[in-house]
Specification:
The protein is an alpha/beta fold. It has one domain: 3-Layer(aba) Sandwich (Peroxisomal Thiolase, Chain A, domain 1). The strands form 4 sheets. A 5-stranded mixed β-sheet has the order 1-7-6-4-5, sandwiched between helices. Helix 3 packs across helix 4. The longest helix is centred in the last third of the chain and has 23 residues. The protein is globular. The structure holds acetyl coenzyme *A. The site of acetyl coenzyme *A has 27 residues, from helix 2, helix 6, strand 10 and helix 8.
Length: about 325
């Protein structure tokens, strides 16, 4: 059995910035409310038709360069997303074409905001069993395209972006040490999409929402908040336990960036110091599947990770889905 190690990371953020002050002109909200309740100050928005696959490709090129892996050597491309360019073919196939990963098998994974960790698990398994030597794992989202801009409870939270990781086979005792996924469909009503099939079947569409959108999301924020903190703590403890690692040994935690209060509550329950938690939520908001790989790439660029460091990534999202991975860091960038 081989191990899968992170060889390189990359990220892409669209240029256009939407600040809390900008949103004050769109819905009945305030910079003060958004900052206090979420920790978000601004988010990036994909403009001029920038698509999920293109943003993912830009993040992927950076990760491949950092890894020193040629796109033609990739065996697998897995993209976590809830906003693929189109229903089919997959976003991963479009991305594969853009980066020239000619011999890779490509697929999307849909697991809400947990898409990246789910995709990482697929790639990890392919490498561990010898099916793949090099795999590209991407989280990319254009959430602005499915945002209900009349709903102040959700539109202030979301942003666009992409992140990528190259995983490679190693026979050393390093890389992904533990990865665990969970889901519970009975909580699907806490966060879901209202799409064209709901409209056709007569479900009332919210006022002001264009029925040309593929879908838009609906959320019960308060219930999701409580459930998220429980799930994140449970899966973190399980994943650390399976890896035989104590919280005190962690060099860095990169959590899904949904709400700074959720992140702080998790750190507090774990007894993890604030300076060991990497956050980008202030700048980018919640970018769903993209949030962890974007934050990871930034943390790596800023030198927050050194070889042999123990890194925990943990997420939750629509489904409900949740998951975590403990990684022993082995790359320079
Ligand atoms: N600006 C001003 N007031 C607002 C806003 C806003 N943007 N949004 C809601 N409010 C109001 C509400 O109407 C309510 O007013 P009321 O008391 O008069 O009824 C009040 O603020 C409190 O609302 P709550 O929903 O109780 O606020 P809460 O503190 O729970 O914060 C939030 C809301 C930020 C959504 C929080 O519940 C949350 O972060 N939940 C988790 C969200 C999440 O993690 N989603 C993850 C997935 S997103 C995805 O998958 C793409």
């Amino acid at each position: 059995m081989y191990n899968a190690e992170v060889k390189g990371t990359g990220s892409f953020t669209p240029e256009a910035i939407l600040t809390n002050q900008d949103l004050e002109k769109v819905v009945d909200t305030s910079d003060d409310w958004i900052t206090r309740r979420t920790g978000i100050k601004e988010r990036r928005i994909a403009t001029n038709g920038l698509k999920t696959s293109e943003m993912g490709a830009r993040a992927a090129r950076q990760a491949l360069e950092a890894a020193g892996v040629d796109p033609g050597d990739l065996d697998l491309v897995v993209v976590g997303t809830v906003t693929p360019d189109r229903q089919f073919p997959s976003c991963a196939c479009a991305l594969q074409e853009k980066i020239g990963a000619k011999r890779a098998a490509s697929m999307d994974v849909s697991a809400g905001c947990s898409g990246f960790i789910y995709a990482l698990s697929v790639a990890n398994n392919a490498i561990r069993c010898g099916e793949a030597e090099h795999a590209l794992v991407v989280g990319s989202e254009v959430l602005s395209s499915v945002t209900n801009w009349d709903d102040r409870g959700t539109c202030v939270l979301l942003g666009d972006g992409a992140g990528a990781v190259v995983l490679s086979r190693t026979d050393k005792d390093t890389g992904i040490r533990s990865i665990h996924l969970r889901s519970d469909g009975s909580f699907g009503n806490l966060l879901y999409s209202v799409d064209q099939s709901d409209v056709r079947s007569g479900l009332e569409i919210l006022p002001g929402v264009s029925d040309l959108k593929p879908y838009y999301l609906v959320m019960d924020g308060q219930k999701l908040f409580k459930k998220a903190v429980e799930c994140l703590e449970e899966i973190t403890r399980w994943t650390l336990d399976k890896a035989g690692v104590e919280v005190s040994e962690l060099a860095l935690m990169v959590p899904h960036q949904a709400n700074i209060r959720i992140i702080n509550a998790l750190a507090q329950r774990l007894g993890l110091a604030q300076d060991k938690v990497y956050t980008t939520i202030e700048k980018y908001g919640n970018t769903s599947s993209a949030s962890i790989p974007m934050a990871l790439a930034e943390a790596a660029r800023q030198g927050c990770l050194a070889p042999c460091d123990k890194l925990l990534m943990v997420t939750f999202g629509a489904g409900l889905t949740w998951g975590a991975s403990l990684v022993e860091w082995s790359c320079q960038l």
